[in-house]
Amino acid sequence: MKLKTPSTRGWIVAGATAGIAVALQYVLPLEHHGGWWESIPAWWAVFGGVGCAVIVLVSKWLGKVFLQKPENWYE
How many whole angstroms separate alpha carbon 52 and alpha carbon 32? Predict the structure, then answer.
């Protein structure tokens, strides 16, 4: 299966969306309200690792429930 290259219109929409997303950071500045957990060393690394593990486990469970068929499926 060969993938199509994006059209000129697609590149323009992607560029405009990215530009708007960057500009909104300056137009609507949001205040950062950190919590006590941000004082824990390596907090974001642990948070990312646990989040990754949860995504993997949920994906494996969904694959077993919805995608896998019994071995004798074609018999």
Answer: 24
Sign of CA dihedral 38, 43, 44, 48: negative
Residue 68 has φ and ψ, to the nearest 5°, of -75, 140
Q: What is the DSSP string of 28-74?
A: SPPPP---GGGGSTTHHHHHHHHHHHHHHHHHHHHIIIII---TTTT
pTM of the model: 0.52
Kindly report, residue by residue over 1-50, the tens digit of the pLDDT. 677 887 899 899 999 999 999 999 888 877 777 788 888 899 999 999 99
